[in-house]
Amino acid sequence: MKIGVDYYPEQWDRALWKADSDLMAKIGVKLVRIGEFAWSKLEPRDGQFDFQWLDEAISTFSRHAIGIVLCTPTSCPPLWMYETYPDIVQVGADGRRIQTGIRGHRCLNAPMFLYYAKRITEQLARRYANNPAIAAWQIDNEIEAYPCTCETCRGLFRDWLIDKYDTLENINAAFGNSVWSGEYSDIAQIKPPTSYPRAWQNPALCLDFARFSSDTAVKFVSDMAQIIKRENPRAKVTTNTFFCENTPDFYKLFSMLDFTSYDNYPPVRISGDDNNPNSHAFELDFMRGLKQRNFWVMEQLSGATGSWAPMGPTPKPGQIKGYAMQAMAHGADTVMHFRWRTANKGAEMFWHGLLDHSNVPSRRFKEFAELCREASKLSVIETTELVSDVAILYSPENDWAFRIQPQTEGFNYLEQLRYFHAAFTRYGTNVDIISPTADLSKYKAVVAPAMYVYDKASAENIYRYVIKGGTLIMTNRSGVKDQCNNCIMEPLPTVYREMIGAEVKEYDPIGNTEQTIADFAGNKFTCRQWCDILEVTTARAYAEYKDSFYAGSAAVTMNRYCSGVTYYVGTICNMDFYESFAGNIMKQTGIPRLKDLPRGVEVTTRTNGLDDYIFFFNNSEEEADITLPKAMYSIIDGGERETLTLKPFGMDIVRK
Ligand code: GAL
After folding, report:
1. Per-residue confidence at 99, pLDDT binned at 50, 70, 90?
2. Ligand 1 atom at minimal distance to the Cα of residue 338
3. How many angstroms is it from 241 CA to the middle of ligand 1?
4. How far apart are CA 145 and CA 412, in angstroms?
5. Which of 188, 211, 320, 641 counts the highest number of beta carbons within 10 A?
6. Which one from 36, 43, 283, 299 is the annotated catalytic residue?
7. Which residue in 653, 642, 593, 586 sits closest to 618, CA to CA?
8. Confidence label for 198 from pLDDT (cuts 50, 70 and 90)
9. Is 103 annotated as a binding residue?
10. Selecting from 3.40.640.10, 2.60.40.1180, 3.20.20.140, 1.20.120.430, what CATH number does the domain 601-655 have?
11. Pocket test for ligand 1, best of 71, 265, 338, 340 (most atoms within 8 A of CB)
């Protein structure tokens, strides 16, 4: 397994490069990522390129056989470009042009920006794509589907709409523009949603604009990747992503790239609140699901974070190593730490790296060196992957649509997925988070939370899975919207009603009010946010409401449909419900459960088809003891174990 670091040669004296590369080699760093913000050093003036310093930096590291992840610098155009072409800067939803001087504020559709972005990417690709020191390429940095409203984007959005709907009449019909006299009589009247937040804007317009903004980001990344591939078709190209405000369609983004990479900043504070699962296991499984393949962490927590925001606490002993190993447990094959040394200048001088301002290796640095040592012994898991019995479906369209209309106080789409993820993983089973159109046939249970916006391919895929004998769990706010983000005029959950065997008679968006449900065995659970008042047709009640005028109505149902089984959870509960529910589903479907795992201990399995490697990660501040079903070998130190004692944030990996 490879451990790397993010490094900024442009920020340090050359003398330090050598000392740093020597130290990296000594402790076992295998990769450095460089260049993502260095455009003004690479092209100080229009068309005047300087690659000499980059050549030198690359050879400083490659001398030690440290591989390079070379980035394209398009997130930070130099000021000369902004000065000459002010309209390459994004315009916000309020119609104002963003101020320059920070980063990431270039419009990905601006013709002059694209001209320069292609040129610098081409220059880099020509010079380095066949250099054996280059292990991989990163396009730009944390690209977002920023909803830019500049003139260029407005024009392209209009073209995008005409391309999709053909005529203005069709657009008017799709958007329901007869509401509030919003009918377009001329194409020039079409503009992106221009107030922020999006209150009062037409949800149909907003969803199409989110789709358009995502397509813009995906096209930019794929165009840049093609430039690199032209020079070397075998080059490995990615972009680093994160859970941002303006999420692109992650599936489309990475479908054009060789692998997924993710910037991983798990929380240092452990909440201790069971209803607020704080593990980044969810994020990691999410990233693995984007290509249904192992991935890289391109930035990993290394110290106290902050700068523009107040600093958060420094990682506790065990977290630097433990969180990197946790990423591997969920399918990361490479983990790069952000950053080697803390900046002493610029906006991020308090977002700490591995080395502090003192430049003296500290506790965190020593733990990182230990990580490098241990990771180098884990080559046996390099060819392994996670195979899961459970899948949770994530849809970018549902994500966007819920951001546009948040439904009820406290409702959060990703949280719906998180609850189920936390519940199933509590029993030590692997969980995939995948697209609703992915092949579901291999899963013993599939959770389809809040399938809000209808999509034909997804609905057919889900039906196919159940018809062929799958066990499906669906939740409230499913089948609500059509493709245009308008409400479907049928009893909920509309297209899924037949399969669910129940329908929603009325719903009650109770927000943060707490109510009670009881399951078939009489166990009581708190519910909140949303109550679908269900009437069963072919289904049976799994749980019913205990309060309000709908006491006695079904809250959760179970139905046999063709060869499969469907559950519908009409409300949102505390974690104890999800744990009990997931436990029952696992029992019904024969998914093995580890029942006595101490709280906070996370278990995943990576396999190469012959051998299984079980990762035990103690994501808590208490020491944890685990009894293994039989004696197993630890691949960390080769010792045979019947019990594991894990320190806080400690990890052991045993061969089954
Ligand atoms: C990431 C970004 C890095 C750095 C880091 C810490 O989002 O890619 O460049 O800014 O956060 O803030």
Report:
1. confident
2. 5
3. 10
4. 20
5. 320
6. 299
7. 653
8. low
9. yes
10. 2.60.40.1180
11. 338
Let me know: does 298 contact 310? Beta carbons within 8 Å.
no
Q: Is 570 helix (H, G, I), strand (E, B) or coil?
A: coil
pTM listed for this prediction? 0.97
142 lines ligand 1 (CB under 6 A): yes
Point out the ligand 1 atom lying closest to the alpha carbon of residue 242: 7
Q: Whose CA is nearest to atom 9 of ligand 1?
A: 141
CB 250 within 8 A of CB 280: no
pLDDT of 500-516, one tens digit each? Answer: 999 999 999 999 999 99
pLDDT > 90: percent of the chain: 95
Query: Is position 142 annotated as part of the catalytic site?
Result: yes
Task: Burial-class residue 180 by CB neighbours within 10 Å (0-12, 13-18, 19+).
Answer: exposed
Distance separating alpha carbons of residues 609 and 75, to the nearest angstrom: 41
Break the chain into its structural domains and give their ranges.
Answer: 2-145+218-382, 390-589, 601-655
Which atom belonging to ligand 1 lies closest to the Cα atom of 142? Answer: 8
The two three-digit tokens of residue 563, written as one number: 């060869």
DSSP state of 205: H
Question: Using a 6 Å cutoff on CB, does residue 144 contact ligand 1?
Answer: no
Say which CATH topology domain 2-145+218-382 has: TIM Barrel (3.20.20)
Residue from 542, 525, 526, 523 nearest 534 by CA: 542
569-622 residue pLDDT tens: 999 999 999 999 999 999 999 999 998 899 999 999 999 999 999 999 999 999
527 marked as part of a ligand binding site? no
Query: Is the Cβ atom of 302 under 6 angstroms away from ligand 1?
Result: no
77 token code pair: 């155009």
HEC states along 486-503?
CECCCCCCHHHHHHHCEE
d(Cα 110, Cα 262) in Å, to the nearest integer?
27
Domain 390-589, what fold? Rossmann fold (3.40.50)
- pLDDT over 70 for what percent of the chain? 99
